[in-house]
Amino acid sequence: MDHFIIDFDSTFTQVEALDELARISLKSHPDREKIYQEIEDLTNLAMEGKLSFSQSLEGRVKLLQANREHLKLLISHLKKKVSTSFSRNTAFFKHHPNEVLIVSGGFKEFITPVVTEYHIKKENIYANTFEFDADGNIVGYDRTNPLSQEGGKVKLLKELNLQGDIYGIGDGYSDFQLKESGMIKKFFAFTENIERKSVAEKADHITPSFDEFLYINKLPRAISYPKNRIKCLVVGNVDEEALLQMRKEGYNIRQRESIEDKYLHEAGILLCDENNQPKAEQLLNAGRLKIIGIFGKVQSRKLAEIACENGIIVFDDPKYNPRNADFIPKRVIAFMNEGKTHTSCNFPDLQPPRVSNAHRLIHIHRNVPGILAKINDVFARHNINIVGEFLVTNPQIGYVITDVNTGYDAQVLNELKAIEHTIKFRLLY
User: Fold this and answer.
1) Are 92 and 118 in contact (CB under 8 A)?
2) Given 54, 213, 298, 342, which is the most exposed site by the fewest CB atoms within 10 A?
3) How far apart, in Å, are the Cα atoms of 91 and each of 85, 94, 118, 129?
4) CA–CA distance, 48 with 46 (Å, rounded to integer)
5) Strands 166-170 and 186-190
6) What integer pLDDT is reported at residue 17 of this predicted model?
């Protein structure tokens, strides 16, 4: 059986928990900013391998001045700070309860309440434990725990003696030490929240999201294709707020001064302003392009029509619309995540509800009779149950979204792609 060793701070959660605890416990302290910085510095030095973990931990705990009430506030805060790609893959943890281990230099008192909500077993959580005085103040920690010591994760894994291949995911030097020790098969540097160059350059693989880790290892995941692998080409005057939304979604942003064919050829998404729209003929060789978001009005009917004929949806918005920076990215994200086409200037309108516990597939085809029957025939021959299906058309295309509630093999996808008159096919989740 394979095992997945997952770090907690800045990996499972977006933050370093002890740093956050300090901000809670020292909120009224006159020197709080100075102490915050000291704690943060101790964290970073250890994570980068410039200070032993045991020295860093001891220094941070001394500075905390925290108690049980502060821990309650911290737990509530951390539950809202679970890394986005981990929170959307709850189903993976539910179906792999024996393979996933949380191994952290943090503390069980705040880790356990957070990760057990994601179906992770208490007995698979390995972390330090605080020591309290009679009044509930944190006065120290169990120094016999190997995770409180330098090289603690390596020591722990030697004790556990896990069988099978072991994969480690984390952001810090203590995570890399597992790879360095030869105890794990691969180390994945997790960079969704922070990228430590000294760690990333030693990793077997850099994973900007948990989706990427699951994809690389051919494991079940909430989305079919990691967003960090989808290039978003940005050309012209595009508001920074719009780019921030796309970055939060995890897309690989590439900014250029003009729409060159070589960059358009690689792009899955194009964002451009009114003065930097692609020529209609450029779309003929943009095989990966799924969507164009124009901050302004589409310049020609021909561009919208050629895009539609090639299965590329276009969203546009008046140039000086005050909602512009928010409107276009929201439409792009809704299409990429759920297949929604509402307000598109060239696709038929469809706003399907999200169905839980289902896989969503999109099929775009020439508007000719009989395609829906052929799609459903593929599902029927493979005994796949359809839980929801939506078809809309315009004179050029048919746009079908199908939600199915069972797994399928690659043959099903290949058969759907091979249906005559298919323009584009996508598996969303």
Assistant:
1) no
2) 342
3) 12, 5, 8, 28
4) 5
5) parallel
6) 95
DSSP class of 414: H
How far apart are the C-alpha atoms of 73 and 55, rounded to whole Å?
26
**Alpha-carbon distances of 132 from 136, 139, 404, rounded to whole Å:** 5, 5, 52
Count of Cβ atoms closer than 10 Å to residue 278 Cβ: 23
In sequence order, the 6+-apart residues with CB closer than 8 A to the CB of 399 are: 341, 347, 348, 350, 362, 363, 364, 391, 392, 393
Query: Quick one: pLDDT at residue 405?
Result: 85
Residues 410, 429: Cα–Cα separation, whole Å: 14
* Displacement of CA 419 from its chain's centroid (Å): 32
Q: Which domains does the chain have, with CATH numbers?
A: 3-216 (3.40.50.1000), 227-338 (3.40.50.720), 359-427 (3.30.70.260)
Weakly modelled stretches of the chain, pLDDT under 50 = none
DSSP letter string over 31-93? THHHHHHHHHHHHHHHHTTSS-HHHHHHHHHHHH--BHHHHHHHHHHHHT-B-HHHHTTHHHH
Q: Where is 316: in which H helix or E strand? A: strand 313-317
Q: What is the pLDDT of residue 187?
A: 95
pTM, two decimal places: 0.80
